[in-house]
Here is the input.
Amino acid sequence: MTDQLTVSVLGTGIMGAAMARNLVRAGHTVRAWNRTRAKADPLAADGAHVAATPAEAVESADVVLTMLYDGSATLETMRRAASALRPGTVWAQSTTAGIEGVAELAGFAREHGLLFYDAPVLGTRQPAEAGQLTVLAAGPAGGRDRVTPVFDAVGARTVWTGEDGATGSATRLKLVANSWVLAATAAAGETLALAKALDVAPDGFFDLIAGGPLDMGYLRAKAGLILEDRLSPAQFAVATAAKDARLIVAAGERHGVRLDVAAASAGRLERAVELGHGDEDMAAAYYASFDDGPTA
Here is the structure.
């Protein structure tokens, strides 16, 4: 058992709620807040204190963990918490905020004397609930004795990418990894859509590639969600995936790289949102292949 910490979790959606529960299970005191309080209230039964405001949540915190929608929402929330933040408090920023977003958040941390860690995570609902996320982290060595117990509670592995969170090295790695995840998800959906259109049984395709270099566990997992109509509750929601896809495209443009697949994936995800699938698993981008919204 590690020394008990007081951890403020700001943002208790799919990922944040699971992370908060694992922090409680690890013996830490958890103070949770969410913009829609109904999403945070169930954490009280797990032993967390549910706060009414971000400032109340961060009061007396050793570590603040943010897991909000994007960089703008995170910055707004931290500004609301600013009056209760103590200089020297560790801030582990786990939102996928993009490169420019992380720079803005690091600037806020400097202004308020916080120890800033760029700490996005790899994984979806199931590994989050099991405490099996991979934490990608960058931040000062001086505060790692306080932030490491938090990472150990929510993840199975921490990959350190540097000692300056402001450079966004962890976020850069996360964007690269997510570009592959989004491309694979889009390809899985399009493959199933084409099979449907051509009257090819999906099992015939899976049998064809079974055990060979074209086979992939991730393909089968996402295809299974579509074929078995298990898109809710989402492992990683369509709307959030669309946001991440746009961050990836923007990062490429900023560095002189054209990412046609990522841009197309963003478009598919946004169409799926328009068709009413925004809260479903990102595999529901499958439905963007059809104008009439067929069943799987």
